[in-house]
Design the sequence.
């Protein structure tokens, strides 16, 4: 979602020896930069934007001889001024102009044919990704205009009528320049344009994908030729990085899947019978939790042949891209499609097909100020590795000392995500990645064991952690109170409802649970070392683990309480654990509520047992959120 912050800006323009003060109010801006031009007769020029074209001594610039003058918002104040000329031909974390990859669809011209949503192969996906505002050579309406980074060529009145200008981009395929007065792409400037001055807009054509192939910067060179003389000026800009949101930021829109008529899966679904099912209690309780936080709830209905792939968290990772604007930033959401590629053919004739559920994002979410990008391998990964190419395996630590934009957290180990997808997500340059070992988990996602929650400490946050030993201890407490006959999952339609006594008598179950505890401790050793958190700051939530019946590795036997959805920093939608009860109180629920209450977090319980838990995921896996990122949109500030 785009956000504009404008402020009342006042500039003193010296006309001769008389200062004239021009003030601009906070209206809908037509461009990300402002300028105040002087006309040849000395009065302020009537441009759609404003440019302060003054020398450091306060007089209007009057250069001797031929010159080329190209300007961008180098100092990142949202204005294009004389102050931007210093250091314009280089780019650093502290200074240099920024542009957006224009990958949204402001006029909603990129449509999706329903018949293509289940089509095998990658042709549909390539077509969908190729349609966006950067794919044509025009400005797609007024909303698209503000997605362009401002470039100015101030007027040079001493040029002859035979003078010419040329604009060159390097690399030429990463951006395009428009003349904002005509809305047309431009590479040549006429004598009239050079004399009067021209306002330009730079459109990024792609995001940063692989730093070994492109470092994200473009150089724009203006070459002016007149009467046998040539002058050049170079400005360097960088594409805005894709910045991942974090769970402390308020959810504006919560997304979840919705069933459809049809088989729901291409082939035999990898779930127990009847799963996913009981969508109504899931939708109702999720709706109650969402409404209590003030967020909007949007259901994404799957296709008849694919609606059982309802894992919205695992289908994409939300990000934003921002550039400076007057008084703040201009932001576009960019949804990163998960890097899953599946084989829809046979062993002898494979047919690599990007996960079809990802196409729903182009249908339902891409539009004005919401773009989509994907980085997909031409071949399918082994299933056990492909599980790591999902959004549930990509999390974000909020800002903390040394990391002003937070860090990307992901899981890997003996199993590894696709290199291209991983580079796209972790290689943007401003959220240093941090890896934990999740190979011991059957699914292998980072969100299965930890979740960021607010805290009353110096950094303002801590980690909620799945604690298998706490879960076992709670069961033993129930047993000691004489309630060992109480059943887990008693309030569900699950065919499996073991008693507390049965769980504690199962040596294999307890061995798997303790093995999970050891692996989580290894993860915590990394996280505590890298973040500076202390063990006594952690929020421990009871989750009982077991061996997965099909895949190698472990899974949550009881609903994974950490695998919930933060609605705000103080409201958490958690999976109902369906734990054993003592005197009518679910001991797992009570333990989680007490632990989170100490950090100021209220729990909303969501009934996801049949809809997602029995299928291998929880509330977090089956939902996603578009968050209010205004607190982190200005990623270029306070770099260290």
Sequence:
């Amino acid at each position: 979602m785009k956000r504009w912050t404008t402020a009342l800006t006042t500039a003193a323009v010296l006309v001769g020896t008389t200062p004239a003060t021009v003030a601009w109010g906070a209206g809908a801006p037509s461009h990300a930069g402002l300028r105040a031009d002087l006309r040849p007769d000395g009065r302020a020029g009537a441009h759609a934007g404003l440019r302060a074209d003054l020398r450091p001594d306060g007089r209007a610039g009057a250069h001797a001889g031929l010159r080329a003058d190209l300007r961008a918002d180098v100092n990142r104040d949202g204005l294009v001024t004389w102050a931007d000329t210093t250091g314009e031909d280089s780019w650093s974390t502290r200074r240099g102009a920024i542009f957006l990859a224009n990958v949204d669809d402001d006029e909603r011209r990129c449509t999706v044919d329903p018949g293509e949503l289940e089509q095998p192969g990658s042709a549909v996906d390539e077509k969908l990704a190729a349609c966006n505002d950067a794919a044509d050579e025009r400005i797609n309406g007024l909303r698209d205009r503000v997605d362009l980074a401002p470039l100015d060529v101030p007027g040079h009145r001493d040029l002859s009528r035979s003078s010419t200008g040329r604009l060159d981009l390097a690399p030429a395929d990463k951006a395009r320049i428009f003349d904002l007065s005509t809305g047309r792409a431009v590479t040549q400037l006429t004598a009239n344009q050079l004399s009067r001055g021209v306002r330009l807009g730079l459109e990024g054509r792609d995001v940063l994908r692989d730093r070994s192939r492109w470092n994200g910067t473009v150089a724009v060179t203006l070459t002016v030729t007149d009467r046998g003389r040539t002058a050049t000026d170079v400005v360097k800009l960088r594409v805005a990085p894709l910045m991942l949101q974090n769970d402390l930021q308020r959810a504006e829109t919560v997304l979840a899947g919705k069933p459809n008529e049809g088989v729901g899966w291409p082939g035999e679904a990898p779930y127990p019978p009847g799963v996913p099912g009981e969508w109504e209690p899931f939708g109702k309780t999720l709706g109650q939790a969402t409404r209590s936080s003030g967020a909007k709830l949007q259901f994404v209905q799957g296709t008849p042949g694919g609606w059982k792939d309802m894992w919205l968290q695992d289908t994409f990772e939300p990000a934003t891209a921002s550039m400076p604007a007057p008084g703040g930033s201009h932001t576009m959401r960019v949804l990163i499609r998960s890097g899953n590629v599946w084989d829809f053919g046979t062993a002898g004739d494979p047919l690599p097909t990007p996960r079809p559920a990802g196409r729903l994002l182009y249908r339902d979410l891409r539009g004005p100020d919401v773009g989509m990008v994907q980085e997909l391998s031409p071949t399918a990964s082994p299933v056990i590795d492909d599980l790591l190419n999902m959004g549930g395996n990509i999390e974000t630590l909020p800002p903390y000392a040394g990391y002003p934009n937070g860090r990307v957290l992901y899981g890997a180990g003996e199993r590894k995500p696709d290199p291209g997808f991983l580079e796209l997500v972790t290689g943007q340059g401003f959220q240093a990645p941090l890896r934990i070992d999740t190979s011991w988990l059957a699914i292998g996602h980072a969100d299965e064991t930890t979740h960021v929650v607010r805290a009353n400490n110096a950094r303002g946050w801590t980690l909620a952690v799945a604690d298998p030993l706490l879960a076992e201890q709670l069961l033993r407490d129930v047993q000691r109170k004489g309630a060992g006959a109480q059943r887990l999952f008693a309030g569900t339609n699950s065919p499996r409802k073991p008693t507390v006594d049965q769980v504690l008598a199962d040596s294999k179950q307890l061995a798997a649970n303790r093995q999970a505890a050891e692996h989580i401790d290894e993860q915590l050793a990394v996280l505590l070392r890298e973040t500076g958190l202390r063990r006594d700051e952690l929020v421990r939530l009871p989750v009982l683990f077991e061996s997965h019946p099909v895949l190698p590795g472990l899974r949550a036997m009881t609903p994974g309480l950490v695998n919930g959805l933060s609605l705000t920093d103080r409201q958490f939608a958690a999976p109902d654990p369906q734990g054993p009860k003592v005197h009518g109180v679910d001991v797992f629920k009570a333990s989680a509520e007490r632990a989170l209450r100490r950090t100021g977090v209220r729990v909303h319980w969501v009934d996801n047992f049949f809809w997602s838990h029995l299928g291998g995921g929880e509330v977090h896996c089956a939902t996603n959120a578009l968050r209010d990122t205004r607190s982190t949109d200005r990623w270029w500030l306070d770099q260290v």
Notes: The longest helix spans residues 507-531. The chain has twelve helices and 34 strands.
